[in-house]
Amino acid sequence: MDRLNWLEERRRSGNLRQLFPVKRMPDGTLQVEGDGGKAVFHDFSSNDYLALSLHKDLITASRKYLELYGTGAGAARLMSGDLTLYHDLERQVAELKRQEAALLFGSGYLANCGVIPALAGRQDVIFCDRLNHASIYDGCRLSRARLVRFHHNDLNHLEDLLRSKRGQGEALIVVESIYSMDGDRCPLKDLVLLKEKYGCLLMVDEAHATGLFGAHGGGVIEEDGVSSQVDIAMGTFGKALGSYGAYVAASRSMVDFLVNRARAFIYSTALPPAVIGASAAAIRIVQEHPELRQDLFAKVALFKSILKQGGLESLGPSQIIPVLVGESVATVKLAEQLRQRNIFATAVRPPTVPEGTARLRFSVTLHQSDIVLKETATALLEILGR
Ligand SMILES: *Cc1c(COP(=O)(O)O)cnc(C)c1O
After folding, report:
1. One of 53, 143, 180, 328 is an active-site residue; which one?
2. Cα(282)–Cα(251) distance, rounded to whole angstroms?
3. Which pLDDT belongs to residue 322?
4. Atom 7 of ligand 1 has which residue's CA nearest to it?
5. How far is the CA of 36 from the centre of ligand 1 (A)?
6. Cα separation, 269 vs 76, whole angstroms
7. Which biological pathway (predicted)?
8. 260 is known as an active-site residue
9. I want to staple 120 with a disulfide (CB 3.0 to 4.6 A). Which of 135, 145, 205, 273 is the partner?
10. Annotated catalytic, 42?
């Protein structure tokens, strides 16, 4: 491959990915130093939905764990790195997700790449929602199982495929509960009926739901009351929980199995203690402070109500609000126009999303004041001429 031509082609089509260094300020805004001095942006692209990454309890807990236990785990869990603090956090996760047990992974990406190949192999089949995250697809590829993709959130299509392609081996259905780029929600109650009817395992990625949905922040599986029918509930500490790392929550025997089979768990150093301190504090906060979720969804409603006045309806019930543009070049231009008004919303383009569906993805977080939300929605409508 000619790399320079490849990059040039990406640039021409408006799909070049580029880094954009920023400083995160204590109030969650982004500061950028350029030729014209400093500029400040309101961040509509972070997944720090509850603003926990700057919460004093997380910082205090993180510092405490750092000072007590050092900077690194020193080894993988199955060597000498199995510090008791991981087990404490796993108990907290299991309780939050209403499962028997839990297992930590280095990141959500690693969890999906580790768990899926542990559950399905050459003889098996994986039913995968078309819009699933790249890490899920990578896990499916690593598994070498037959990959069957169903239309996004379309359970009729899934059932057709289950009838014709279920086979005799293990069958795994993988979905997200809140979709990362569309912000819509999986019909989990109906999905669990299907998974039982066809004898499949069900894995639910709750990356954008944990901490935000459910009476105790246990995610959509808690809100829909289906925790006991979900075989593997996966999620990350890097989004609403304001920290880093990831988990799967499942039965005790499933966790025992993964300890023996998930290569991304076995062959990787355990997370740094300071990260665990922050994650443990975050779980306590989301369990004890439902008002954070209520505040967030009041802000979401405010933002959406203004967009709706301009005819921009969102698909989902969530804090993720995509504004579909279509062409990549036009999407990048819109992002630049917003940046001139101190609003930072990343243009999400192919191959992250399907061809022709480039969009701005706004996420509402507790870092944003109501005034900023109003101004942003109004500015967006103005630029779009609505
Ligand atoms: C972000 C994300 C991941 C990856 O999690 P990290 O902890 O950031 O590696 C996995 N699945 C979904 C749906 C995500 O949005």
Report:
1. 180
2. 23
3. 96
4. 108
5. 35
6. 4
7. Cofactor biosynthesis; biotin biosynthesis
8. no
9. 145
10. no
- Give the list of residues 6+ apart from residue 320 with CB closer than 8 angstroms, or none: 178, 179, 180, 181, 182, 183, 208, 361, 362, 363
Residue 115, Cβ density class (10 Å: 0-12 exposed, 13-18 middle, ≥19 buried): buried
Which atom of ligand 1 sits closest to the CA of residue 179? 13
Whether 289 is catalytic: no
The verdict on whether 159 is a catalytic residue reads: no
Alpha helix stretches (DSSP H) within 13-154:
56-69, 84-96, 108-119, 134-143
Q: Which of 15, 42, 43, 47 is an active site residue?
A: 47
Helix (H, G, I), strand (E, B) or coil at 342: coil
Give the helix/strand (H/E) hosting 7: helix 3-12
Mean pLDDT by 10 residues, the chain (386 residues): 94 93 95 88 98 98 98 98 98 98 98 98 97 98 98 98 95 98 97 98 98 98 98 98 98 98 98 98 98 98 96 87 95 96 95 93 98 98 94
The model carries a pTM of 0.97
Of 128, 135, 244, the residue with max ligand 1 atoms within 8 A of its CB, to mutate for a pocket test, comes to: 135
Q: How far is the CA of 139 from the centre of ligand 1 (A)?
A: 12
Task: List residues bridging with 42 in a β-sheet.
Answer: 343
Query: Would you call 176 a catalytic residue per the annotation?
Result: yes
Pocket test for ligand 1, best of 180, 184, 248, 348 (most atoms within 8 A of CB): 180
Distance from Cα 208 to the centre of ligand 1, integer Å: 8
pLDDT at 36: 80
Residue 156 annotated to the active site:
no
In the chain, count of helices (H) and strands (E)? 14, 14
| Distance between CA atoms of residues 109 and 117, nearest Å | 13
Instruction: Tell me if 177 sits within 8 A of 204, measured CB to CB.
Output: yes
Say how far apart CA 271 and CA 81 lie, in whole Å.
9
pLDDT of residue 34: 82
Dihedral sign from CA coordinates of 146, 149, 153, 157: negative
SS3 of residue 223 by DSSP: helix
d(Cα 231, Cα 368) in Å, to the nearest integer?
Answer: 36
Beta carbon of 223 within 6 Å of any ligand 1 atom: no
Question: How far is the centre of ligand 1, averaged over its atoms, from the C-alpha of 207 (Å)?
Answer: 6
